[in-house]
Amino acid sequence: MESFVPFVQNNLDSALWFRPELALTFGTLLLFVLDLFWKRSVARVAYLTAGALAVLGVAAALLSQQPSDGTPLFNGMIANDAFASFFKWLFLAAGALTVLIAAQGKDFPAARIGFLVVPPALERELVQFRRIVSHQNDPIVQDAIARWFASGGLERHLRRMRRHYEARRDAMVAALERARETVDLEWDTPDGGMALWLDTRRDARRIARAARAAGIFAVHEGTYRFEPGPVRHLRLGFSSLAPERLTRGIDALVEVLRDDVGRRSRPPGRVAVP
Fold first, then answer.
1. Which spans in 193-235 are helix H?
2. How many CA atoms lie within 13 A of 256 on its CB side?
3. Cβ(211)–Cβ(253) under 8 Å?
4. Which long-range contacts (CB under 8 A, 24 or more apart) does 263-267 make?
5. How far apart are CA 31 and CA 41, in angstroms?
6. How far apart are CA 106 and CA 178, in angstroms?
7. pLDDT per residue over 99-151, tens digit each?
8. Does residue 41 sit in helix, strand or coil?
9. What stretch of H or E contains 243?
10. Sequence-distant (≥ 6) Cβ neighbours of residue 49 within 8 angstroms
11. Rounded to the nearest 10 degrees, what angle do helices 82-102 and 19-38 cross at?
12. Among 249, 246, 221, 243, CA closest to 234
């Protein structure tokens, strides 16, 4: 009986050499249980990743305390040597790498940046294919825009653009005010939008054709209507032109209107009969 006690004691002492493996086993079971509570959390993957790395860290700390001098275990049935320790460290490193790679999925915030070198002839086709496959915008651009929104960039941009478009609208209105001294015109100054509707007091389709012949782009209201009726208004956009160009454009349009008034008020000429 006394000879059996050292045998049992050696087996118990040998089992302590497997503390890294026991830490991995019970740590994994603990993470399975915790995952039941974290399943609905938006940071689920982050929690699991941190927990898995912690378990691997505990196992690595326990492994580092073991000597690799060929210690016999279980009464000489096996031995722990440098060769066995090497594969244990290799297993832990592979586990850590697997955890980090898995954390780069869609559930975990990451840039996921990559590149592909292709011949120029394939570039267009591959870019189109990537857009079809991903069905989403660039995450880096999305993050940049979200940060811009959070910093108040959108509000600053809106205030700046409002002043920008107001200056252009005011330049157009000022030019029309000067023209109204010689041409019968009416309009309502818009409080918003990027265009002004000008009542020409005459057939706006005729004026639009004459303006286009003079190099001025103006759209009459008939373009936007489905029902027949009088067409007297022109839509004058001011968002894409500088104030100086708007002023020149309105002056040229006024000349078209004056010519139309002159032609309509001129009496028909007589035809000479030989």
1. 204-213
2. 25
3. yes
4. 264/202
5. 14
6. 61
7. 877 776 544 444 455 677 888 888 888 887 777 666 666 677 778 888 999 99
8. coil
9. helix 243-265
10. 99, 100, 102, 103, 108
11. 10
12. 221
Structure tokens at 253: 């349009």
Tokens 């912690």: give the residue: 54
Residue whose tokens read 């940071």: 43
Token pair of 262, please? Answer: 């002159």
Question: If you ran DSSP here, which 8-state letter would residue 106 be given?
Answer: T
pTM of the model: 0.46
CA dist 248 and 254 (Å) reads 10
Residue with tokens 């940060």: 147
Q: Which two tokens stand for residue 68?
A: 């690799």
CA 52 to CA 94: how far, in whole Å? Answer: 13
3-state SS assignment for residue 42: coil
CA 111-116-120 angle, to 5 degrees, is 140
pLDDT digits (tens, 9 = 90+) for 150-183: 999 999 999 999 999 999 999 999 999 999 888 8
Phi and psi angles of residue 112, each rounded to the nearest 5 degrees, phi first: 50, 55
Reading the block at residue 254, the tokens are 């006024």
Taking the C-alpha atoms of residue 95 and residue 52, their distance in angstroms, rounded to an integer, is: 9
d(CA 147, CA 124): 31
- Convert the pLDDT of each residue in 55-107 to its tens digit: 999 988 888 887 766 666 666 566 666 777 788 888 888 888 888 777 765 44
Q: Domain 157-265 has what CATH class?
A: alpha beta
Using the 8-state DSSP alphabet, how is residue 202 labeled? S
Distance, in Å, from the CA atom of 198 to the CA atom of 250, rounded to the nearest integer, reads 11
Q: How many residues does the chain have?
A: 274
